[in-house]
Write a structure and sequence with these properties.
Helix content: 25-40%
Shape: elongated
Strand order of the largest sheet: 7-6-5-9-8-10
Order of helices and strands: HHEHEHEHEEHEHEHEEHEH
Mean pLDDT: 95
Number of strands: 10
Oligomer: single chain
Strand content: 15-25%
Distance between the termini: 62 Å
């Protein structure tokens, strides 16, 4: 039986101030929790015997076998799975997020946790190890963001900082930004490393950050001149941009350049 205190703690961890106060975040789901165990310290875990049986060693400080409706009672999901865990919040060194020789994403006020989590998943798919977020972006350790990463958070470090200062520190590195009036991305030669800035879902990249962008990119709609949606979702745009960066890098490698 899961205690009322533990149920209350999980509910409190939906809020950022309580995550910071307790130093914990919530993760749910069979594959997601399995991925997270390799990257984060597990403080407490509630799991069914069937899930535990296929995991081997489970490095949790406290492991509780789920009994009956325990997971349904404590879960934050509409459709709970077989495991819920509380992990320790990590501490990352932003000095490791050096974009000189590898692609790095910078997010300017991306406030939707689902979008943020999906962008982290995109970064993981394309081998991007660091995502830099403005301090007013969504918290990647919010339950909805964690779920949207689908375990990618175990392999991608997400940093929060003043992004103007971060971009200014790496002024010698190519800085790309996505704009509706930028240059067609498919006509530009893109560098293997550097920074890609993605803006807020509604207002895009703010002027103070835009001033630090070296190359303005646009994902063109098709066909040219056709009435269409005003813009792409920021997570979809991240996927398209990252795919083109990687396509060009792979093409140059295959050509021997």
């Amino acid at each position: 039986m899961v205690s009322k205190a533990k149920v209350r703690l999980v509910r409190l961890l939906e809020m950022k101030r309580h995550r910071e106060a307790h130093g914990l975040f919530v993760a749910e789901g069979n594959k997601l929790v399995a991925d997270m165990m390799a990257a984060f310290e597990c403080e407490w875990m509630l799991a069914t015997p069937s899930w535990m049986a296929v995991q081997g060693h489970i490095p949790a400080r406290e492991l509780v076998v789920a009994d009956g409706d325990d997971i349904r009672r404590i879960s934050l999901l509409k459709n709970p799975q077989d495991v819920l865990a509380l992990f320790r919040l990590p501490s990352y060194d932003i000095g490791e997020a050096d974009p000189a020789h590898r692609l790095t994403l910078v997010l300017d006020a991306v406030r939707d946790p689902g979008n943020l989590g999906t962008i982290v998943r995109v970064a993981d798919w394309f081998g991007i190890e660091h995502v830099i977020c403005s301090t007013d972006s969504a918290d990647v350790f919010a339950p909805k963001a964690v779920q949207a990463t689908m375990g990618a958070l175990a392999r991608v470090s997400v940093h929060y900082t003043g992004i103007e200062q971060y971009l200014d520190r790496y002024r010698h590195v190519p800085v790309y930004g996505t704009f509706t009036d930028g240059d067609n991305i498919y006509g530009k030669t893109l560098s293997p490393g550097g920074i890609v800035v993605l803006g807020n879902e509604g207002s895009g990249i703010r002027p103070s950050v835009e001033a630090l962008v070296h190359c303005r990119l646009c994902i063109p709609s098709y066909p040219d001149g056709r009435d269409t949606s005003e813009s792409l979702n920021v997570a979809v745009a991240a996927a398209v941009v990252c795919a083109e960066f990687r396509r060009q890098t792979c093409s140059r490698q295959d050509s021997g350049f």
